[in-house]
Write a structure and sequence with these properties.
The chain is built from nine helices and no strands. It is mainly α. The longest helix is centred in the last third of the chain and has 35 residues.
C-alpha cells in the first residue's frame, strides 16, 4: 500500500520550515565569513544563553560584548523558531529519545496543565497561543506554546506562526527595554528615584497586562 500523500498543511509547513532553516544557515555562513571562524564560539555561547533565558538579551549592554540587544533578540527569536519547527516536525520521534524524550513528555504534561488552567486557549486558539508565548508567565514559551497549539487543534503552520508572532513581540520588548536602560543607565544611576519609578511602571504594566489576559482572554468566564 502506498503511503498517503502529505496534506496541504504539512506541505506548507515543510516549505516554511525549510525557509527558516535555510535562511538561518545562510546567515550563519555569512557571519562566519565576515567575522572569522573564532566568532562561531561566541555565537554558540550567546545562543545557549538566550535559549536558557531571554533575560540574556540585557547582556547586550555589557561593554565589549560582541552582540547588541537587538542582535541577541533576533538570535533568541530564531532559536524559538527552530525549536517550534523541530517539535512540529517530529514530536513522536523526540519522545522516543532517552533523555530528550523524558523532557518532551514533561513538556507535553505541562502543556496539558496549562490548557486545563486556561481553557479559553482552546476557544481563542491562534491568538491565545501567541499571547501564551508572549507573556512571561509560568508554563509559557515556545515549547509549551507549540505543544498547546497542537493540542487545541491548530495546524502545524498556524502553530508555528502563532509561536513566531508571540516570541517575536516578546524579544522585541526585551530588546527595547534593554536599549532604553542602556541609553539612560548613567542618568538612572544618578537619580535613583527615576530608576525606581521606571521599574515600578514596568512591573505595573506587566501586572495589568497579565490581569487583563487572565480575566478577559484566557478564561472562559
Amino acid at each position: 500500500m502506498e503511503p498517503a500523500p502529505p496534506s496541504d498543511d504539512l506541505r506548507r509547513f515543510r516549505l516554511t520550515a525549510l525557509g527558516i532553516v535555510g535562511g538561518s544557515l545562510v546567515g550563519l555562513v555569512l557571519y562566519v565569513l565576515l567575522q572569522g571562524l573564532e566568532a562561531a564560539g561566541e555565537l554558540a555561547l550567546a545562543a545557549t544563553l538566550v535559549f536558557l533565558s531571554k533575560l540574556a538579551i540585557f547582556g547586550g549592554n555589557i561593554p565589549q560584548t560582541r552582540f547588541n540587544p537587538w542582535e541577541l533578540a533576533l538570535l533568541a527569536w530564531m532559536i524559538d523558531l527552530w525549536v517550534s519547527c523541530a517539535l512540529l516536525a517530529g514530536i513522536a520521534g523526540f519522545e522516543r529519545l532517552p533523555v530528550a524524550g523524558a523532557a518532551l513528555t514533561e513538556a507535553r504534561e505541562r502543556a496539558d496543565r496549562t490548557l486545563q488552567r486556561y481553557p479559553g486557549l482552546r476557544r481563542l486558539a491562534f491568538w491565545g497561543i501567541a499571547l501564551l508565548v508572549f507573556l512571561p508567565i509560568p508554563g509559557s514559551g515556545a515549547v509549551t506554546g507549540t505543544l498547546v497549539g497542537r493540542l487545541v487543534g491548530l495546524s502545524r503552520l498556524a502553530s508555528l506562526l502563532a509561536v513566531a508572532g508571540g516570541a517575536g513581540v516578546a524579544v522585541l520588548a526585551y530588546a527595547a527595554i534593554a536599549v532604553f536602560l542602556g541609553a539612560q543607565w548613567e542618568a538612572l544611576l544618578r537619580n535613583p528615584w527615576v530608576l525606581l519609578a521606571s521599574m515600578a511602571a514596568l512591573v505595573l504594566l506587566l501586572r495589568l497586562a497579565w490581569l487583563r489576559v487572565h480575566a478577559e482572554v484566557l478564561s472562559d468566564s
